[in-house]
Each structure stands twice: as structure tokens, then as C-alpha cells.
């Protein structure tokens, strides 16, 4: 009779019970809710309700989600490797010159105050590195300088700068407010 016993169990499982019915309705509710939000998000984007003007500050939720996504992506994609080039005064000075020529316009020059008043030139507002510093590691700064950040105005300068120069600017950015005195003296002369 084991066959009859298995058949009976199969029939009992297929019968609608209040518990099976409740679970089915619960799961159906989850699926419908997810589908509703997915269709709503697609409509929001597809029909142009998302504001894309670069001269208008982003909303709080957009700022939060995009900043969070950017930081998470950099942490995930940028390999944590040591600078392969020896850290010398020359490297920091070269990094300072690259920063002055290619970064300072958006990220500020050492000794300069963050501009106030009027609209920011970019949204999201680029960090003023001399006053705010960076939460990224040197390897992450290198990765950002090399690959850029999509839709922020941060260019992928790895297309025209060597890895050595990019590691130099990364080393400079991480140390710009604590440079050795010899480097500060030499930069002051130029």
C-alpha cells in the first residue's frame, strides 16, 4: 500500500486549504506590488518626468541614491593595490602640476576657498578637495582619475594620461594638505 499512501499525500497537498490559499494570495500580492513599481519607474523615466537639467540641483532622493551608487561602484570596481611607482618628491610635484592643469578648475586649488553664491558649475557639485579631502583610498582616486565618473563631468583622463601621471595625481590628492615641506617649498617657487 505504499503507492496508495503516496497518492493520498499528493492529493492532500493539491487540495486548497486556508493556509495554501493565504500563502498564494500573499505571494501574488508581492508579485503585483513589484510589477506596479517597476512599471511606474519605467513610465517615470520613459515619459521624461525625470529632470535632467545640469543647471538645476538634483532632488534629495536623486542625490542620495546616485551618490550611494557611485561610492559603492568605486569601492567594488577599483582594485585595492598599492601605488606601483615609488613615492618621491618628484612624483608629488608632477601630481601637483597635473592637478593644477586638469583638476583644479572643478575641484579647487590649494589655498582657495570654495566659491560661494550663484549656481554651481556642475551637478552633482564636485568636491572641493583642498578643504574637504577625499574619503577614497589612493587606489580609488587613481581609478576615478583613469576611468572618470559617468554623468558627473568627471572625465576619464586615462585616455590621455599615463598610469604614472595618474598615480602621481592620486598620491598628491591624498596628501595635498600634508605635503612634505620640501615639496611645498618647491611648489611655492614655481
Q: Could you state the CATH homologous superfamily of the largest domain?
A: Cytochrome c-like domain
Which class best fits the helix and strand makeup?
Answer: mainly alpha
What is the name of the CATH topology of the largest domain?
Cytochrome Bc1 Complex, Chain D, domain 2
First-residue to last-residue Cα separation: 97 Å
**Count of DSSP E strands?**
0
Identify the CATH class of the largest domain: Mainly Alpha
CATH architecture identity of the largest domain: Orthogonal Bundle
Q: In what range is the share of β-strand residues?
A: under 5%
Strand-and-helix sequence, N→C? HHHHHHHHH
Helical fraction: 55-70%
Rg, Å, rounded = 27 Å
Task: Describe the overall structure.
The chain has 2 domains: 2-46; 62-189, Cytochrome Bc1 Complex, Chain D, domain 2 (Orthogonal Bundle), CATH 1.10.760.10. The model has no long low-confidence stretch (mean pLDDT 86). The radius of gyration is 27 Å and the shape is elongated. It starts with a helix and ends with a helix. With 190 residues, the protein is mainly α. It has helices at residues 2-14, 18-46, 60-77, 89-102, 104-107, 129-132, 138-147, 163-175, 181-189. The chain is built from 9 helices and no strands.
Summarize the structure.
The protein has about 190 residues and is an all-alpha fold. Helix content is about 60%, strand content about 0%.
Secondary structure topology:
Elements: H1 2-14, H2 18-46, H3 60-77, H4 89-102, H5 104-107, H6 129-132, H7 138-147, H8 163-175, H9 181-189
Helix pairs in contact: 4-8, 4-9, 7-8
Amino acid at each position: 500500500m505504499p503507492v496508495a499512501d503516496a497518492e493520498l499525500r499528493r492529493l492532500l497537498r493539491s487540495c486548497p486549504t486556508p493556509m495554501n490559499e493565504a500563502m498564494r494570495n500573499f505571494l501574488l500580492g508581492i508579485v503585483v506590488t513589484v510589477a506596479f513599481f517597476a512599471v511606474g519607474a519605467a513610465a517615470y523615466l520613459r515619459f521624461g518626468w525625470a529632470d535632467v537639467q545640469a543647471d538645476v540641483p538634483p532632488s534629495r532622493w536623486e542625490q542620495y541614491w546616485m551618490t550611494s551608487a557611485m561610492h559603492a561602484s568605486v569601492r567594488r570596481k577599483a582594485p585595492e593595490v598599492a601605488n606601483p611607482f615609488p613615492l618621491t618628491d618628484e612624483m608629488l610635484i608632477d601630481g601637483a602640476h597635473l592637478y593644477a592643469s586638469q583638476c583644479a578648475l572643478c575641484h579647487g586649488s590649494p589655498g582657495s576657498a570654495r566659491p560661494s553664491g550663484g549656481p554651481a558649475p556642475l551637478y552633482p557639485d564636485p568636491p572641493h578637495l583642498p578643504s574637504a579631502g577625499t574619503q577614497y583610498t589612493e587606489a580609488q582616486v587613481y581609478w576615478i582619475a583613469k576611468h572618470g565618473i559617468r554623468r558627473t563631468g568627471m572625465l576619464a583622463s586615462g585616455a590621455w594620461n599615463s598610469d604614472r601621471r595618474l598615480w602621481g595625481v592620486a598620491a598628491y590628492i591624498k596628501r595635498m594638505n600634508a605635503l612634505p615641506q620640501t615639496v611645498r617649498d618647491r611648489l611655492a617657487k614655481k
